[in-house]
Structures are given as structure tokens and as C-alpha cells.
Amino acid sequence: MKNIIDLSQKLIRIESTADNKNGLYEVLEIAKKELKQFSVRTFEKNSTPSLLFSNIKNAKDFKILLNAHLDVIPGLKNQYKPLLKNGKLYGRGAQDMKATAACEILVFKELVNKVNYPLGLQLVTDEEIGGFNSAKYQIEKGIKADFVIAGEPTEFGINNEAKGIVWIKIIAKGKSSHGAYPWKGENAITKMISFLNILQKKYPVPSKESWTTTVNVSQISTSNKTTNKVPDNCEVVLDVRYVPLESEKIVKNVTSLIPKSFGYQILLKEPSQFTSENSKYIKLLKTETEKIIRRNVKTVYKHGGSDVRHFNQIGCEGITFGPIGDGMHTDNEWVSIKSLNHYYQILTKFLLSI
Questions:
Q1: How many Å apart are CA 89 and CA 95, to the nearest integer?
Q2: Keyword set for this entry (predicted)?
């Protein structure tokens, strides 16, 4: 247990944010030192490094691949000074997901020569901004697995489904005029408001957590900076989070609501995550988890994405699965120390039972 805490603290002390490239390399060096006796490959795309450890030199096709991201979102300065208090480890990345990464690193270290199948450990540094230069890049280089476990926070639920993402920019055009003579113009903002009212009726904000597609109006703007002028343009950006069942039709469903006089642009379309709960690996992980934590374990859905979605796109099964904690992306982030010990035991039992 001491080794898990010590390694977690070392990782948390590093400001490994997207805007601090040195921090990304530094945090990976800590992992390399811990696993210096094992085979490792280094990948890099757009100045974004990642590592792949394996028990078989130059292996590309793994039975099980442990995935951990060592990048974090920016935090307060004191969050890079890990704190142990009341059975909890506090710090930036404590829950998401440096402490979990420490567990994965140490489990790999213990078991790499005890399993008789290809086992990999993937350490990436850009999951928080999409995973395109680390996990996805490694996939483009031929890395794949029968089953991927990404150690994202799940409170020991087995996350087999997550929503996909579509970002859409919508442009309304109008006709400018003096604000005192609005009948001479055509207000683009008013036109956009009418559209947004229609959109809200189709995709109302749920009153509580719900496994449904949601649409968030994340940005609205106009070039008009004058009070006494009818604006002739208005843009909004929509953040659409769709359930896996709508993967093929989500773009059409949203864009069909846009008036023909408007323009639009698809800024991003990212796939959803899905692995059947009938997967033999999910069933096995569920069994081993229940033995350790002594309670029922369920498959759960998540509204945000992870690197698992990239593996799903090439036919790999995968889930996110992590210990107990809270405060992810906040100023009060923590992970339960007891649950880290349980997590280590669960991964060990799971990997040895395959």
C-alpha cells in the first residue's frame, strides 16, 4: 500500500497539463524509472509523448491492455502538493487519474512475468483534450487489444457505455439597419432565438440525470458591438452528447431542425463508447470485484468520453473502471486510500484469472 501512495504522490506533484509540455515528459519519466527493467516503446505526435510497456518485446496485439492518462486539467498551486487526510489522498489528479495510474503501474510490475498472455500498459498524456495524439496515435500505429481497461473514476462500477460528442456551429444571417427602424432590417439574433426555442422543445434539458441525448448551447456571438443597430449575423455553438443508439443519425436529427436560410458547420464528431455487458471480460471483472469489495457491482453509463472510444472504433472491447473518490476537476479532488488497495487487488485477481 505504501508503494501505491508514494508513487501517486510523485505523479501528483508534476503539473502535467496540456500547456506544460515539460510536465508531460517529466511525469512519464517517473513511470519509466518505476518500470526501467521492462520493455517500453515511446510514441510522440504533435509534441505529445506516450509510452507502451509490454511483457513481449514489440508486441502490438494484446489480450489485456491497461490504459492510464497522466495529464490533468490545470489546478491550484496547492493541489500539486499531495495531502493525506482522513483516509483520503487529495491533489490534482488524485481521482482523475494519477492514483489509479500508480495502481496500474505497480500491478503491471508485479504480474508482467506471471501471466502467459500479451499484457500491455499504455500511459498517455492528452486524454483530457481528446486523446488524439496518444491513445489514438498508438492505435494508428497498430496497437490493439482484446480488452482495454482505462482507470477513469467509476466508484467500482464497470462503465461499458458512454455518450458520443458532436459540436456544431450554426450561423444565422440577417439584414442590418438602425436600431430605431427595426422594420427596415432583419435581426439575426431574433432568428437564432426562434431556432433555439425549437431546438429546446426537441431536446429539453433533463430535470435529473438521464440516459438521453442532450444539447447544450455553449457559445453565442455576433459581430455587432453597437447598441443602436439591428445585427445582421449571429452564431451559436452546440455541444451535443448523444447515446450510442443514435450514433448513425444524430447529425441528421439535429441539422434537420436548422432553417434552410441558416448555415452550419460540424466542428467535431466523436464516437460513443460501447461494449456489451455480456463480454466475458466484463463478467470476469465483475466477479473478481464483488469478491474484494463484497457488494454487488453493476455496469454503468457515463456522460463524458474516454480513450476507450478510440479502441471501440477498431473493434476492441473496453471499459472504464476506477476506485472511489470525488471532486474530479474541482479544487477539492480526492481518492479513497482504502479503495486504491481494493483496486490493486481487483486488477491482480482479474489478470491472474484469465
A1: 9
A2: Hydrolase, Metal-binding, Zinc
User: 67: Cβ–Cβ under 8 A, 6 or more apart, which residues?
Assistant: 122, 124, 135, 148, 149, 150, 151, 307, 308, 318
Kindly give the residue spans of alpha helices, DSSP state H, lying in 211-270: 250-255
Torsions phi, psi for 267 (to 5 deg) = -85, -30
pLDDT at residue 225 tops 90: yes
Topology, domain 164-270 = Alpha-Beta Plaits (3.30.70)
- 10 Å CB burial of residue 295 (0-12, 13-18, 19+) is exposed
Q: Where in the chain are the domains?
A: 2-162+272-353, 164-270
Please report, for residues 22, 41, 215, 319, 336, the alpha-carbon distance to residue 99 in angstroms, rounded to integers and kept in the order given.
Answer: 20, 23, 33, 18, 10
**Residue 320: pLDDT over 80:** yes
Residues 2-162+272-353, CATH architecture:
3-Layer(aba) Sandwich (3.40)
Q: What is the mean predicted confidence (pLDDT) over 216-242? A: 97
Torsion-angle region of 327 (φ positive above 0: left; ψ -120 to 50: alpha; else: beta):
left
Does this model's pTM top 0.85? My answer is yes
- Given a cut of 80, whether residue 2 has pLDDT beyond it is no
The tens digit of pLDDT for each residue in 190-221 reads 999 999 999 999 999 999 999 999 999 999 99
d(CA 324, CA 157): 10
Q: What is the mean pLDDT of residues 127-154?
A: 97
**Which helix (DSSP H) or strand (DSSP E) does residue 27 occupy?**
helix 21-34
